[in-house]
Amino acid sequence: MTEATRIVVVDDDDLFRPMLVGNLTEAGFAVREYPAPDLALEALSADSVLPDSNLDLLILDWKMPGLTGLELLQRLRQIGLMTPAIFLTSLDDVIYEEAALKAGAIDFVGKTRSFAILQRRIELALSRSESQEGDDAAKEPADGIMQVGPLTLDAGSHAITWQNQPVSLTLGEFKSVALMVRAGRDVSYREIYDALRGENFAAGQGPDGYRANVRALIKRVRQKFIAVDPGFDAIENFPGFGYRWRSAEKDS
Question: Is the pLDDT of residue 235 over 50?
């Protein structure tokens, strides 16, 4: 990480926030801080900071007055700010983690973790974001659109249609489908989770706790496809291993 790495911190805790900002600054990050989500939204909505190139990472608290961190992230996405976001919060229940990832955050870290852990997560998040951009450019056709049977996958807009009907997926859900489609093979729970959170990220209880998160994610994806097509069955599960996108073209 270099001094060029620009981070925005939004947290209403006047004791925790200065300590966090101090640690980030000492580690070489350029940090802007906001004590309230409405102040952050106003500042980040300004034309001078709207382009993603002016920001590298958002670090958001969850429980704040006015808007929650989740609502703030949703508002920022609505105005077109797609900067990667990490939630740093004292709320460690899995339902909050799942909600954060569903909203498009790339990580969820408890405030009780050491700064060394947070710094490593930041490094992984930023490096993974950069590599993901490179991977997408390398794997997609020139127009960024893949057609596999009744599925159309647009990497540029992160949009998916099934049988010419739009399927409303979050960024994380889109990535999981894109991974399975591109792989053309069985994809493990670990591969799917790594694509969402970074390589070897630990979550849940026990060494395989991340599997529950992947199962919940794929369940949501299936439900969204079924809402469009009640007969949808393109995602196959291999218990104990992972999932595969079953292409009708391969079955014919």
Answer: yes
